[in-house]
Amino acid sequence: MIASNDRSIYLRWLIPATSFRLPVALIPLAIEYVIGTGANFRFASLVVGALAVGELSVVGIVATRLDNYSAHLRARSTLTLLALVDVALVVASLVHALLWLSLPAALLSGALTALGSGKLRQTLTHRLQPASLQRYLSWDAVALEGAYLLAPLLISIQVMLLGTHELLITPAILALICPLLLGPDSKLGTKPARGARVTLRSWLWALSAAEGIVEGMVVVSIVPISTQLIHKTAFAALAMALLSVGSILGGVLYSHHATRSANVEPLKRIALFLLALSVCLVASGLVDHSELALGVTLFVFGGFIAPLNGLRSYAATHRFEPRLHAPAFSMVYSSYSVGSVSAAISFAVLDRLLTLSEILLAASVATAIIATAYGIASIRQRPG
Q: pLDDT at position 236, please?
């Protein structure tokens, strides 16, 4: 009976969550289409970059007194504010004289996305039974992959049917619908106690950033790998699709068996999965340069992504008390972005200094070092 009730709670929560996640996945690509074709692609890239900077800023927000102000905003208020900012982004993209406003709008949208993700996830964890958390956070990682797989398809359909000019209206409408679907906020305190703070010294943030490094490196390197190593430009898109399919399948399998590994501390599982991702990343640059070898490698790589996403959220519920869940989930989101952006910047800097395989090896080593360092630290902290 409890399991059935938790399933119903999760499915009801998933409806507004999907209405939140689809715009997040749609907006970067829509910006490239709308602003890139309407103004220029260089400015469009700056706007997309502002989204990432906004996400990264949440690390500073959670670490300062600004978090006290953000804590006063309940989930519905945060998501409503995000929807209004997305509408402002639409207006700025359609009115040439206001185009410059798209930069601060994107910056604010990125910050509110990270904060909104934390508050939205907090409402779920407050409603579920503690025994069900790991299972449904694992399933939710699969649902998240589905949203990111659906977003490019929606963009493609709209471009073919309606063109690119008003493409940003779709994510804005979805964002407006989200707070209407969310329902009442949890009565559990969203305001941290005086002096309470989500510490930046947690190993969870380092491991989360490491996942961002290794996955971000795949995203920025997949086209160069396809063009320079296997000499099949079009294969990059198929490879990313295989990675997403692998992630969904891996998430489904992990969700079925997650409770069997309950005796293994969540951060240890994250570290082990990161080591596996490191091996896959090296293999993507060293395996036989063929579509089959690269496709299999990325499919296996994808198999660890959804489990890792679910584990990071589950680890946050273990390391922080309920009233700190919202900022903790926001930090899980933004610390991943720190790693992902770092990977993109590193690739741009090292591209002319190292070969593609050497860059992938460097990212793999950096990720493995973080995972291994956590393993050593956890062993030293054992009593006796």
A: 79
Beta carbons within 10 angstroms of residue 263's beta carbon: 5
CA 133/CA 329 separation, integer angstroms: 14
Sequential DSSP letters for 106-163: HHHHHHHHHHHHHHHHHHHHHHS-GGGHHHHHHHHHHHHHHHHHHHHHHHHHHHHHH-
SS3 for 200?
Answer: coil
Cβ atoms of 273 and 304 closer than 8 Å: yes
CA dihedral 249, 255, 256, 262 (to 10 degrees): 140
Exposure of 95 in the CB half-sphere (CA atoms within 13 A): 11
Q: What gap in Å lies between CA 22 and CA 17, rounded to an integer?
A: 9
Residue 276 pLDDT more than 60? yes
Q: What is the dihedral of CA 232, 237, 238, 241, to 10 degrees?
A: 160
- For the stretch 160-177, pLDDT in tens is 887 878 889 999 999 999
> Once rounded to an integer, what is the mean pLDDT over residues 1-11?
79
Tell me the pLDDT tens digit for each residue of 263-275. 678 899 999 999 9
Name the phi and psi angles at 168, rounded to 5.
Answer: -75, -10
Quickly state the pLDDT bin for 362 (edges 50, 70, 90).
Answer: very high
Burial of 110 (0-12, 13-18, 19+ CB in 10 A): buried
Give yes or no for residue 200 having a pLDDT over 70.
no
Find all residues with CB under 8 Å of 304, minimum gap 6, and list them.
Answer: 247, 250, 273, 276, 277, 280
Determine how many CB atoms are found less than 10 A away from the CB of residue 181: 16
Work out the pLDDT band at 335, boundaries 50, 70, 90: very high
CB of 340 closer than 8 Å to CB of 357: no
How far is 274 from 259, CA to CA, in rounded Å? 20
